[in-house]
Amino acid sequence: MSLLVAAAAVGVTISDLAFRPDRNELISEDLEWNKRYIAYREAFSFDDLLCVVAVPETSDGTRRAQSYVNDLAERLQRDGQHFSAVVHGFVPSPRLLRLAPLDQLSEKIDQIAQSRVVLESASPSELLARATEQMAASPAGTTVDQGVAMIAQMTRLVGAMGDVLDGQSPQQALVSLQQPEQAWQYLTSADGSLMFVQIEPSLATDVLEPVKPAVAAARRIIKQTLADHPGIEAGLTGVPVIESDETDVAQRDATFTSILAVLVIAVVLILAFHGWHMPLLIVATLLIAIAWAFGYLTLSIGYLQILSVVFTVILLGLGVDFGIHLISHFELVRNLHPAGPVGFRATMIDTLQAVGPGMLTGAITTAVAFAATLLSQFRGMAEMGQIAGVGIMLCLLSMFTVLPALMRLTRPRRRHITPVHRRRINLYQHRWWQPFVDRPVLPLSLVGVAVIAAGFTVSDIRYDYNLSNLLPKGVSSVRWFRTLEENTARSDAAGQGSIWFGASIVSNDMEVAEHRVRDFQNQPSIAGVGGVGWLFPKDAARREDLIDRARHSLGSVLHHAPETIAPSRDKLLTQLRVLGAAISLADRQGATEEPRIIAAFELLRAQIKRTAGLLASLNGNELSRRMASLQAAFGALQKSTRSSIQQALDARPLTLDDLPEVLRRQAVGGGDREQLLVQVYPKENVYVPSNLELFVTEMRRVDPLVTGTVVQIYESNQLIMRAYIFAGLMALGAVFVLVLIDFQSLVDALLCLLPVAVAFLLLMGMMAALGIPINPANVIVLPLLFGIGVDSGVHIMHRYRQSPDEHPPGLAGGTGKGITLTSMTTMIGFASLMLAQHRGIVSLGFVLA
Known about the structure:
The two termini are 35 Å apart. This protein has 30 helices and 13 strands. Strands 9, 10, 11, 12 and 13 form a five-stranded antiparallel β-sheet that branches.
């Protein structure tokens, strides 16, 4: 019957059990703050895959990284099966100038002022003359970068003239005149050390994890593209990628640690029981119970999540305890009864009467400790408690039914039981502990000193809000996520690429949005705003002043073109020779020794030579036609320059239409695009609890309904702490009541709980001394320790009541060996988690062990 039920449970599990990687599903959907976050996630999608590219720290690093990004984006876009959109940059509108950082805005305004020479010139030769004068008159404080940029602009101007004279169209010449950043703006971090490609995945409908095929395809294409761009480093990250990787790691960890725990526990039992028959029967019984538990899990909940995935290891460590207690007493008294089924029956009755009450009380107290978590709104903990609590009772049921049946079927005789006094390996002997009983003052004094020491250090224990510290180690997506975190920490928190922000949602009312943005900007803990907040920079008045001054300085030339004159070959040749002579004079006088300036002059000299040669080679009709094309290109240049400057200096306020699509998607959302999003960035590190609390408080001062990742971190951690403290108190109270009912004695009940209280205080003191923080993964120890830790005390008290005159008190009759082995196997089960790759699971295993 047991095997049939186990087989059915395994079949249901294989067929229907799923895994949910979304951490937000660990929290009840009934909580108001979680409802807001879910609605925000649905309206504004921030679940794109993100390819992060590290820009090499070489002179051509930016160019090589851009080449890789272009190639990667093209390959991703060709895969329409896995990706619905790929964004690696945008064409910036001139009006976006006013959103640039203030120092860049001031620099751009200076460049606009220099564009006056284009607007005022009447011919190409006059433009060249004015540009030459401007370059020669550059102020003494001009930096090398500014000088190189100025010479490069002159090189492009001369080269564009040569292109027209060589037969290219005026439109092609205009393109060559544009600076690369004017034609395309890549997605980069604030300091330019990282480049990004945003990938919107197409979700599969025929797999348990819909995003997984897209993640695999993106990684394959990234790897293939890297092979064609040596020296470039790139990787995939983002919430869906990390959750997918976390799922894989957690499942591998659960499988590996479960197998390891089974093997090590089996070895310990074989050594302890001086044979392999009984240990294998215990392990077989335990595996049947775990199969039942999986069936219950699949039928009642239907899925595992990041917390409950380790329940197998917990059941291995705890469920085996019942079999150990049963076998420990059975082997002690088996030789007191005759061989055969009659003697076996008498031995089993004796065993169950001796250890059965303790097993039953221990199982109930442990299950109740797990069940205390069901009252929490932290769904992850409640599901974990439900699965483990029922699993413990199923383990007890299996040990009470399946194990005796297996023993009766396979070993009804008694000769296979080697008497304890004849065994070479004995993991427990009474003489080890009797001295502590004979001199009780010494051990109690030592424990008292340890408790006092722990009391002094326990106040130093801290709670770690940083969920990224729980992510798996050695995983590519986590490594690139940390790279992104470190880059954000080094730069302005409000800069592009920042990953932590609050989300304030406004109905489609730009006036309300601006008012809210201004209120956010006045809060001390807020560094800046994004989303629709980009349209309302904090220093808007100063920016407008710079733009107004530039507009007035250009005057009428901004709107009225001068009368042009036909280009003259002789005048243009003269200006090219003047420019060439100026460069030669600068070389002879040693005006600069900067290699970059010298290299820039060489490029300019080459373009002068080329353009002058082309100009000199033309004659007759061909000369007239090419000069007419040059005049057309000059007119088009003036027109495009004037139009760009007019847009950049336009006095009208910015609107959402001025934002490129990649930024507009982050500012507008909702089913009918009727919602505006204000992203609110913190000034200080939100991993520090006090900073996070202040940041959330000040955001709520402006918008009580604010949501976002940082709010979710704050609220979920508060929920977790409250839930576990509440569950711990409930577990402690329930365990005390159960033990009191069992023993009908307040003193005996308190004696059972005293070691647990001592152990709990010592654990907290040890964690504080070693600098190990409490975190969302290991805080589960609070309710569990009371239920698990009281078991040994219950067995000792039951044994003491049965045989108060035996020594050591409560450890006779196989109980000492039983609690030694059960403690060892429980610690083995938990300690196996410390070998996991997932750091949250490692933390849980360490603290529980």
